[in-house]
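Render this sequence as a predicted structure.
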Amino acid sequence: MSLQEPKNSLVSVPSHLRQFVVEQHYENYTAVNQAVWRYVMRQNRFFLGKKAHKAYLNGLRESGIGVETIPDIEYMNERLSRIGWGAVTVDGFIPPEAFMDFQAHRILAIAADIRTIDHVAYTPAPDIIHEAAGHAPIILDEKYRSYLQQIGEVGAKAFSSKEDHEVYEAIRLLSIVKEDPTATTDQIKEAEENLERAVKAVTVTSEAAMVSRLYWWTVEYGLIGELHDPLLYGAGLLSSVGESISCLQDDVKKILFSLEACIQTSYDITKPQPQLFVCKDFDQLIEAVHELGQKLAFKIGGTYSLQKALESANTATVVYSSGIQVSGTVTELELDETGEAIYLKTTGPTALAFNNMELPGHGKAYHHEGFGSPIGLLKGIDTPLEQFTDEQLESIGVVTGRNVTLQFASGVKVEGIVNSIIRESGSILLLTLDDSTVTYKGKTLFQSEWGPYDMAVGAAIVSAYPGAADKERFETGTHHPSKLTSRRMEMDEKEQRRNTLYQAIRDLRQCLEGGSSLSESEIDEIISSVELQGNTHCPEEWLLRLEMLEILSARNILPQRQARLREELEGLMKANGELQQLIENGLALLK
């Protein structure tokens, strides 16, 4: 599905995000994968029916998610389109700003892979269980999906740092290594240490980190309702067999939700959460994300926002009070004696836009070396230049073909021959001058040899945010897929044999549930063959035994074989303590 629209959706994938979209390749899911999905979903339906937010169970049905089979994303996409959302598959962890941008456009980005049996209870890697079964069901709640879209919009406009990117790459590496069956203990340890170093290198909490923390403690690990008896709504909890149960125990501290508490609390994706925040309702979350937005550069504007754009060292959009948008990498600011920015400069490809639409002739191909413009009022004139009428322009000499000198209150001086004036919606956006020079206190900011001077007009900077204004034309540089790709494992002979056994049991269950008249002896023959081969080739396969026992228990047949399977499962629990809770949870559903 790369560089294509998802099918049957009421929303479209912006071109700058299509680079992250991949094919689901449903045919690549194995019978083992299906068994893992089925185990987790049966557990979740049993436990979360009482402990999850009321929207969960209904949301599973309405979002196209079943218990028996891994969901088809195209079908999910069609179901979600009924509420104006969509779904696409991506390759594992994508950059947080891209993930947020998908949600801002009402699209769930769903990791196509599924966790291994070894990580059935929890995986640090995003997978289809987490993304589909965790995020999608609650989205059917109108207030919650409003919050999800709004935090996506805020997150997409929050500046990140270089250190944030290093942490992202380290997390992605760890998630890939931990889900790689061929990874050695040393490789996992090295990836964990790499993440630890990246986290320690972060000395300042960026805007993106604040949004990420709010997202983590709400969308991923949020609780809702009463502090003493909360319900689950966070996707990380709804998709984790282990943590969905353990999170409600007393050793996990429950804290009343507040924005400040969330953005001041960091998190570790590799460990169970030691504390969780309980909101009273989704309205409280919406209020919080509005409050957080007011703390960010895109709302604050002014010199503060320009400094954030400069520190990001990446494509950013600066918005003047006239409405003109300058998209490029801010590399230099001229400040006056009070520390206020009076001139900005970008380096490299830059584009000019208005209302998120690129101005004709002012794309990054034209401004490929950069752009620079003053900020502020003209000296001795209280009316912002962008508000000047034609008569006022003429009074200061701004007439096409005429020489003009513009002296700004800041001390910046612009001289040249007026070539053109661009207005939009009653405001002057851009003046283009020939044979122009721009100076400030003896420093040359622009000289005529460089060509025509395009001067953005605006008395103030009202906003700055990461990425380009017209993303479709600019193909913003803030969203780059990681160079690390998930490893696609080829099944060896042992894995093929194991998958064949799981497929035999899956076929048997589907046959019986479809109304087949298989006799007890025929069922016994199939189960006996799988059990014999399983004991020979994969003696530690607990989930296979559990699935066989489920079929027999549901029909109350072959008690001796049931007893033997239970004994084998009890033996596996004694031999491997990590399996005890998983097997006990599975057995509990048979009662």
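Summary. Residues 31-51 form the longest helix (21 residues). The two ends are 43 Å apart (CA to CA).
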